[in-house]
Amino acid sequence: MTAARISSPADHPPPGLRERKKIKTREAIRTATYALVGEQGYDATTIDQIAERAEVSPSTVFRYFPTKEDIILTDEQDPILLEELRSRPADEALADTMRYVMREGARRGFDEDPAVARLRTRLMVQVPAVRSRMMESMSSIGRMLCVAIGERTGRDPDSLEVRVYTMSLLGGLMETALYWGEHGHEDDFAALLDRTLEVLEHGLSKENR
């Protein structure tokens, strides 16, 4: 088994001007979409309206986001969390590593912008196209996560074991988000995530009824 590689800040220089401009454009498109959906609903919001609000062309919207659902669901967090996973101590148990990474993902995605998190999960519950696209996107996210977990454990990232473990985590995260949205965002998401991780780690034991 190979040891997990510990990355350093020097390994990942800050993004250049071109990449910063791309991030700024993506954020403008997302912000415009969230605002329009909040004002008039998801179905009534069009790509032309989003482009006008974001001050870009419709073709630019499609260049960054293939579908309207992608605007709602994608963010800049996945690469960051993959780096978080790769930077954890090499001797840390995988379960502890993944617990940290998923909690950090919740903090970034839910605590730092709770209004957007609530909008996303509400749309996942209410709009079948958004929910369907979320399930599709899990495949590409899962492939990236399999590679990172494979690196950390010394296993083949395409092995059945790594794929099952990875997709169990992602499926648990998705179901937690849906549960949160279905119940009106009443619970603390971090607490729900802890319950999810307990089930994934220990199964349906008497303690987590």
Q: If you had to describe this structure to a student in words, what would you say it looks like?
A:
With 209 residues, the chain is mainly alpha-helical. It has ten helices and no strands. The chain has helices spanning 17-40, 47-54, 58-64, 68-73, 77-87, 94-111, 114-126, 128-153, 160-182, 189-202. Helix 8 (128-153) packs antiparallel against helix 9. The longest helix has 26 residues, at 128-153. The two termini are 36 Å apart. Residues 1-11 have low confidence and may be disordered.
- Main sheet attributes: strand count, strand direction, barrel closure: none
Along the chain, the helix and strand elements come as HHHHHHHHHH
The average pLDDT score comes to: 87
Question: What portion of the residues fall into strands of 2 or more residues?
Answer: under 5%
